[in-house]
Amino acid sequence: MIGVTVLGSTGSVGVSTLDVLARHRDRFRVVALTANRDSERLAEQCRLHHPRVAVMVDPAAARALAERLADMPDPPQIWSGVAGLEQVAAMPETQYVMAAIVGAAGLPPVLAAARAGKRLLLANKEALVVAGALLMEALAQSGAEILPIDSEHNAIFQCLPPNFGEGLPSVGVERILLTASGGPFRQWPAEQLAAVTPEQACAHPTWAMGRKISVDSATMMNKGLEVIEACWLFGTDTSRVQVVVHPQSVIHSLVQYQDGSVLAQLGNPDMRTPIAHALGWPRRLAAGVTALDLFQVGRLDFEAPDLARFPCLDLAFQAARQGGTAPAILNAANEVAVAAFLERRIDFPGIAAIVDQTLATLPIESVEGCDLDFLLDVDRRARAHAEQMTGRQVN
Predict the structure, then answer these.
(1) Most buried residue, 85, 154, 192, 338, by CB count within 10 Å?
(2) Backbone angles phi, psi at 189, to 5 degrees
């Protein structure tokens, strides 16, 4: 039995992970589940999956969880705080860690899992965007393995040869083609984007996602962050990564080879596919996903991204090329700007404006030899600057 810890089990990726795990109870056992504040949903999950430990980041929510599970015959141990997340990520009983906590809050447990030599199923973008050098160093030192859960990076992983770590040119790879749906505003005139509402931005045409990531998809910042991730995951730079808008979201990404071949991974847009792939790799596991019907799909369209309509994508490419702390600043400013947009304090184009100005104002520093505290301080300073731009006072 393989022990699995799910960080962020009440979010969409966490829920999908538990669905896949429940289909293979003979192969996997749930060791730990974690959430931020949703004690009601985590209590339901504990009753269904019987983890040994449950962690609530918020101490009050941990007390609420204990009350909800008081009548359970064999309740899990209940821990709280970031320290609790780090502990369950490194537990000896755990072999696989699903990292599905959104935002910089996921960094400490991701690093803890990497340092403890776990198989890291990475759905947390910030781990690589903010702390890519630190995470890759931890993986190299411990011998841990990383399998990407983002559908695009998982698709690329599936299309690359097993020895891609020797360097993409040496294994014949010309470039990575990262697909993007284009979001709900792909065909909107740029002058109308100032009128976009949070409800419209969260109505993704093909994927069911949380509000923050839905807005990131609408601005195409999500794809920009994925470009930065791809560079770390596959040992390359932006010169070998191209974004291709593919509105059907059937081809999840492609790899172009020097001999003219292009390999693609196709499937219905369902996160259980990459989750099952990473859990079972190198085997294949049933995921409960409906098989792709090409006759129903009918056609596949492709177009270049419009960087004038989606400046966040261009800003992410710039940050990737700058390196150092630029990606961390980009990510922090974007999180603040998206939150302000969802609270109707800024308009939709204001997201890119805040990110752009924050990147232009704060110094870009080297991350060579840095630690997590340094990166979290960069994150804090970038957030404070972005908050001031939204009009909110920062103490």
Answers:
(1) 85
(2) -65, 140
108 and 177 belong to one structural domain: no
Q: Give me the half-sphere count of Cα atoms (radius 13 Å) on the Cβ side of residue 143.
A: 1
Distance CA 117, CA 268 (A): 32
Angstrom CA distances, 324 to 136, 319, 369, 382, stand at 15, 9, 11, 14
CA distances from 95 to 77, 144, 285 (A): 19, 10, 17
**pLDDT tens digits, 67-109:** 999 999 999 999 999 999 999 999 999 999 999 998 778 999 9
- CATH number of the domain at 56, please: 3.40.50.720
As a whole number of angstroms, the distance between CA 177 and CA 321 comes to: 18
Check residue 393 and give its pLDDT.
Answer: 55
CA distance 150 to 350: 27
Residues 142 and 166 in one domain: no
Q: What is the domain range of residue 119?
A: 2-148
Question: Is residue 303 included in any domain, yes or no?
Answer: no
The string of pLDDT tens digits covering residues 11-20 is: 999 999 999 9
Q: Is 2 helix (H, G, I), strand (E, B) or coil?
A: strand
Task: Provide the terminal-to-terminal Cα distance of the chain, rounded to the nearest Å.
Answer: 49
Question: Are residues 32 and 125 located together in one domain of the fold?
Answer: yes
